[in-house]
Structure formats: structure tokens, C-alpha cells
Amino acid sequence: MITHWDVKQRTEEWFRLKWGKIGGSTSKGLFVPSDTLLLELLAEHTEPFEIEVDGYCSPEMQRGIDLEPVGRMRMEKVAGVKFGDAGWLQCEENNLLGISPDGITKDETISCEGKCPGRKKHIETVFSRKIPSDNIHQCLHYFTVNPKLEKHYFFSFRPECDYPFWYQMLTRDSLIDLGTKAKPNVKKVSEWVDIAKFNAKEIKDNLQLALKQLDKI
Asked: Structure pTM?
């Protein structure tokens, strides 16, 4: 894995590193039987780089930018570690894979992902004591990208709430359910990572094939 410590997130260089890659926000596509992710990648690989301005910094995103450092400080106290800032973690096994960490230790063995959600989502997370379904794939992606990773912390932080901070630690042995209430599908993190890597390789192969087919048109 290549860690870009010197790249600041949300800069042009950061957007360039992310261009045409499967990052945390699109990693759910590695577990969905659909061509959506492939087509998204194909669209970026067939056009010159550009920064997408629309929705670039919504009020919700700005809230996260402002509050996540505070939540991360609380996470550091709980975990007993110091998280550093890295712009992008680039997987070397498959160069389509990468992630922008909210925090990672210098030895790259512990990371964190923090959210500062609205009141309903935060209290739902605290009450259910589960990582939200729309965040769990991103947490798995940390392990997929980083072979050194031993622990990953997810936290939800909302200072307005009477219960402002909730977290969960994941290891490669943690059990994760990606199924439904009616049809659970429980596997270890390590097993989901193997599936993600397999599907990522297939997507990479299909992307290369699609680009060759387009050259013949």
C-alpha cells in the first residue's frame, strides 16, 4: 500500500488520485451484482480529469469537516492512539482500489472513520449499537485496501445529543452481516475482504476489456 501523507483531502491533487478509482464511497458496488460501478469507472477512464463542483461541499459535508476532528480527538482518547492525516491510501495489489482515511496511525495498523450525522441517524446508530448499513462497506474497504490493518474504529459524533459519541471497533475476525433482516448473511471481515478483492479484480478485467472494445468502435 502507498500512503499519500503529503496530500491534503479535497485539493486538486487529492481529486486526481481518486479519479477512476474505487474509493470508500463507491465500495458498496463491490458487493452488488450490477454494472453500475463498472460504468462509473468507464465514464471516468474515457474522459479527462475534472473536479466535480456540483455538491462539492454541501452543508452536511461542511458539518463533517468542522466536527470530525473533534470526534477524532475523542476517538484517540478511547483507542489510546494518535491518528495522523493521510490524503489517500493506494492499494498496490489492485490499483483501482483506494480510500481517504479519516485517520490512520503512523504504522498503518489502526484507522478510523467518523461521521457527524443528523439527529435521527445518530440516535438510531447509538440505540441500535450497529454501524449504519450505508457506512459498513466503507469500513470494510479500509481492510481491503490496507493489508497491514489490524483494527478499524467507526464513530458517530453529534455534540448536540445527550449521547454524543458512539463507536465500534472492527478487526479482521469481526462478524459483519451484509444481508437483510429476513435473510442474514454473516461473514468475518476477512471473508468479505476476500470477496471484495475478487470482485475488484473482475471489475478491473472487465474495465480493460470494455476500453479495448471502445477502441474498435
From this structure: 0.94
